[in-house]
What does this fold into?
Amino acid sequence: MAGAVGGFGVRTRDRNQRYAILPAPYDEKVFLLEEFKSLRSEIDIHIQARAKLENQVFIGVFALYGWLFSLTNISDPVLFRVGLGLPIIISITGFLRWSAIQLRTVEIGTYLKVIEIRMLRDKLGGWENYLDRVRTSRPIRGQMEGWVEFIAWLLLFLLTITVYLWNYHKSIFVLTE
It folds into this structure.
């Protein structure tokens, strides 16, 4: 029994009733174009995910602080200190997730540079190759967005550590009365 499988091969059955995909001729440019479209779409999704993650973490941290510092009666000082520690954990895990998304996006961009060169048959390539040249020739301008995001995460982490230490050792509230 044989049939087409996605246009890339023929499905056949061997003596042991296992299926195998036999290579079929395919158009390399069509394959590379579809691969390029798919990965560019994935980069767009990653950019949106990074922005959404940043919004959720920053709003969550400040909402938690707003709630903690609006309490008028703190009956459990340990719970209050744990509440002050949560933003540290949230900012660290948020940064780690942001970093993973960022690394994956860079990996995809690196692969897209190869596709661009293969498709266009020159070293100039398209957007990813242009972006790489800008980042190499003008590192500050070319990498500004990434550095601004990194500094924002760093400042959030430093803020959460400072708030925790300030309130742990020299509390705004009188916790032990």
